[in-house]
Amino acid sequence: xxxxxxxxxxxxxxxxxxxxxxxxxxxxxxxxxxxxxxxxxxxxxxxxxxxxxxxxxxxxxxxxxxxxxxxxxxxxxxxxxxxxxxxxxxxxxxxxxxxxxxxxxxxxxxxxxxxxxxxxxxxxxxxxxxxxxxxxxxxxxxxxxxxxxxxxxxxxxxxxxxxxxxxxxxxxxxxxxxxxxxxxxxxxxxxxxxxxxxxxxxxxxxxxxxxxxxxxxxxxxxxxxxxxxxxxxxxxxxxxxxxxxxxxxxxxxxxxxxxxxxxxxxxxxxxxxxxxxxxxxxxxxxxxxxxxxxxxxxxxxxxxxxxxxxxxxxxxxxxxxxxxxxxxxxxxxxxxxxxxx
Length: 341
Description:
This protein is α/β, with parallel strands linked by helices.
């Protein structure tokens, strides 16, 4: 009746607000897929018109986490709702200038007007915290780049890290698995093979490789259990994605994905992987050597060419929908959706 359309609501300002609230609530890494796709549907390029990767990380460094909520805290979303819900978090962020109060909402009010009408309660400092006295000092998400993610976009849920870093740096020993099933089998049959500061690599599970970019809740849950039982840290990186329930030092959306011959496809068992959140980097030390990089890349290309253009470590696909997905899925940095170029 008011003539408000979706594109009046989905704007660069509202998308910035949404990303900010998600980060302040320690939200899922999946927001970096959904927000890109929602923006695209509204004719907006998230990285060009909403915030760059550098701006995203700068926000993460200064924005605190305001909720004590699972999987990294003690309470659930039900408890958050009973303590004032998202409006209470939004009120805190508005008061400290983190959000645009003038963004239009689906009620026809601006965000500021809506929060004024709802009048949510002040933080209880048990479930919802204030900006001045937050639950965690820095935002929940961080985007990494490096020789394993040359275009950036590899995502780490800082709020979910339970240990293993020293001075903001994790150095791990690569344990490579071509697909989720291979890792699940190893965790079930040979859990004793995993050691402190291993960096598990799950590849060929990206938007095109899987195809469909599955979430890795099963392996991350098993790894988290193993780490807590033995008081060790096993990190994980993948070209797939994660469930919001995943915790630990886990990095997803690593691209270009292995199916396309990205650097993650060139990692070998025993390589040294370094995660540096001080510099927002994800690197494999062996791939810094140009000769090693080119030798491994050439071997990968030769194996793919000999197998009809698809590397033999990737799952073969014949189903019509999966074939379409493999042919048209965009990189994770572009939302991972099936968008014909």
